[in-house]
């Protein structure tokens, strides 16, 4: 910053004030006057003038005390205030204590340019006049600036040091905060792991307790079942003993009657020889037809009723001759009428055209196809089927028809899994029909449609009734494939599957549920079969399949009466088969004979007892009725 020189020539008139200094003033008097002016300037100025000195000017009188002018240098920052204050002071305060101070002229310059405008000679003159004052003022201003600069540097250094300390403190604080946060996170992780470990231990303890409770309940249930089975077995033994006693008494009574008759016959032999011969001939002729009835003399009431049924040789409108018992025919007609009514009702509801019904049909079919021989699977599938059949979205008549048709259709092209799951099918059927009884009549009706031997009945072939063999085959149940009648082997396999399903159904008993087509119907079927049906390949295959499925349960229920039935089959039915001289019959004859002679009906069939997901190591099966898991699968869909 350039210095501004203040030239003070002594004017004769300043602001109207005439200055008439004493030309004879000494230098000491001049210094006193200047000090006075400076004090006044400092007192009147709002801010202190930078070049003001605290000490008075004291110079020797011998130094240029006769000079009138001087040069004063100030900074640009103080120039404006200096000019204003100088005007006022020079114009009004240059008279002090009766003395006068006069300046020839006053010249103020704001820039170095005005200084340059003055002559070098004038500057030299002024410097010569006030050199010491100028030097003192310049030195004071320079010292002041240096002092200010040093103070500012010291303050900046102090601020910088303080700032660095604050930064270091902040960095240290942030580092501590981060360490604390990381420590807190690590602690939280440890707490989470401990909490998860406690939860896992608690869950494991809970599951262990639940499993232990379940095992305890299972053991209690098994003990209860064993106790019930023991009581039931005791009742059966007692009942069998009473029946055996009654049979022995009847045999003794018959022996007495026979002895009396024999005595009478001997006495009248000579007199009635002709009559005795005629009577013997009649008895020999009727012996074959009466063997079944005689063997059932001591069986339960339902079997006695069956033995008294009348065999009907029915001629249809087409001239077909049908062999069927009277009661079996009535039951078949009743079931077919129910099926016809259901079909008519479903046709009116548009079951074939409604896509929503097709969805239900697919759901029912999927659940039937996925039935397996485990308790849990059977329970779940039965519950799901009951829920689907009872769903109000689909009419129940349609759901029942779908259920019956899908069950029967399982027998078409049976696979290896069919035999292992057939008892499970029977149990599902019993569970479902116990809640929806109408489904049993519809299912048996659908089975009678596709397998006449389930009635049982037999259609006799005659050339007058059937124009071709193919027509007869269609009448007894042969299927047509690509315009051709299926092979006999294929028909026999499908017939056997139908009868296995039927046999598994009738022998099924479920605790807490009533089988609407149980062992009583199975016993009636075998009695009607032997009374009505002839011995051939088809009837033999049907009988073999039925015995393999239901023989075990029938023997458990009827014991000696069932053995008598097997004796009739071995003596009469198998003999009649052998007399036909057909090589195709050899296999089925061997199978039935082996079944009877090796007492296979005493062994629990494979798949008869359902597998359990929760193994019971202490359970020994004793009850044949409460622990039986036989099932049937009747399914046919067109």
Could you describe the 3D structure shown?
This protein has 638 residues and is mostly helical. It has a domain at 325-602: GLE1-like (Serine Threonine Protein Phosphatase 5, Tetratricopeptide repeat, Alpha Horseshoe). It is 65% helix and 6% strand. The strands form five sheets. Strands 4-1-7 form a three-stranded antiparallel beta sheet. Strands 8-9-10 form a three-stranded antiparallel beta sheet. The chain has a two-stranded antiparallel ribbon with strand order 2-3. Strand 2 and strand 3 form a beta hairpin. The longest helix has 148 residues, at 120-267.
Say which CATH homologous superfamily of the domain at 325-602 is assigned: GLE1-like
Q: Kindly report the oligomeric state of this protein.
A: single chain
Distance between the termini: 117 Å
Rg value: 66 Å
Helix content: 55-70%
Strand order of the largest sheet: 4-1-7
Number of helices: 18
CATH class of the domain at 325-602: Mainly Alpha
Largest sheet: 3 strands, antiparallel
Average pLDDT works out at 76
Q: Segments where pLDDT lies below 50 for 5+ residues?
A: 1-12, 14-20, 49-72, 89-129, 276-293, 295-304, 315-319, 614-638
The coarse overall form would be elongated
| Secondary-structure element pattern, one letter each | EEEHEHEEEHHHHEEHHHHHHEHEEHHHHH
Coiled coil: 149-194
GO biological process, one term: protein transport
Region (Disordered): 210-244, 618-638
Organism: Nicotiana sylvestris (Wood tobacco)
